[in-house]
Amino acid sequence: xxxxxxRPGAVRSDWTIAxxxxxxxxxxxxxxxxxxxxxxxxxxxxxVQVSTLLSIKTGACPEDCAYCPQSIRYDTGxxxxxxxxxxxxxxxxxxAKAAGATRFCMGAAWRSPKDRELETVAEMxxxxxxxxxxxxxxxxxxxxxxxxxxxxxxxxYYNHNLDTSEEFYGEIITTRSYQDRLDTLAAVRDAGIRVCxxxxxGMGELPADRVALLHTLATLDPHPExxxxxxxxxxxxxxxxxxxxxxxxxxxxxxxxxxxxxxRAHVRLxxxxxxxxxxxxxxxxxxxANSIFYGExxxxxxxxxxxxxxxxxxxxxxxPEPAAANG
Length: 327
Ligand code: SAM
Ligand code: DTB
Ligand code: SF4
What we know:
With 327 residues, this protein is of the alpha/beta class. The chain contains eleven helices and ten strands. 6-(5-methyl-2-OXO-imidazolidin-4-yl)-hexanoic acid binds next to strand 7. The site of iron/sulfur cluster has 9 residues, from loops.
């Protein structure tokens, strides 16, 4: 494929909303063919990156994200847990590596970390990197100095999702703004940490909100290195429990459009795989998804077991992607 500027598959940050809408509206076969063509120009189509998640601090979060079982405002029956000890986290990372993960992502139910807490996370990050794993953290909002501290500890990726369009954001979260999210993303980028940023589908948003989210992500310059596309995991007690389920074909379309817009990003088929058929996951890989969360648990909810994921990889001829060198 010709990757020179202006050709399909070239990396651009000047996408217009009209272009994103037009991709989203393509006949399904045309869209998936184009996404797979872009995918093949940049990646081995038979390799998928595998990340394992661990909740290092669980529940009692002051934010009001309507999807989240960890918000203190909703009674979801979740047991709160204090920040883990670094040694215990590193043991879990070792086990994830032994099971075949190449990246270890640590998530904390914070609005933003206190500096003392960040020091403990920095110790975890160094320990994870020393195992030869890629490290990722998601801790809420960061100041520029906090982002630099994590970079010094060796952090490879920071996950911070925009979740939906700016227009719909206020329907989902009232305790922070879209601009707060963009500010943290800029701090992470400026610190030299790779950016993992995506969203959640199936929260009652309109197709135009999904298009707008992709447009925002694809006009970041540079693009996020990693784009998680989550399907809402409905948790009883959260305001979004009972939301109308998303059409699976629409989910695959969003994966395909993300792949075309951000050709070099790893597009992660993230939360929600537990309720997807093998055939739907295969369609997502065909549409350009090339990363998954691997391990029986996401943060607080379930994920397919590792044996069934390896069996699915086997049936599809997919190999786990080797770890990139740290740094
Ligand atoms: N507290 C930090 C924050 O919100 O940035 C980090 C942890 S938070 C749990 C990380 C991400 O998990 C959220 O941005 C959201 O995209 C995703 N998430 C949370 N609950 C979810 C759910 N029920 N279904 C799908 N994704 C979810
Ligand atoms: C992301 O985009 N999805 C992950 C990760 N980043 C941190 C989290 C999914 C959480 C699903 C609900 C739960 O298990 O608590
Ligand atoms: Fe807190 Fe993050 Fe959950 Fe929002 S998504 S309630 S910030 S843990």
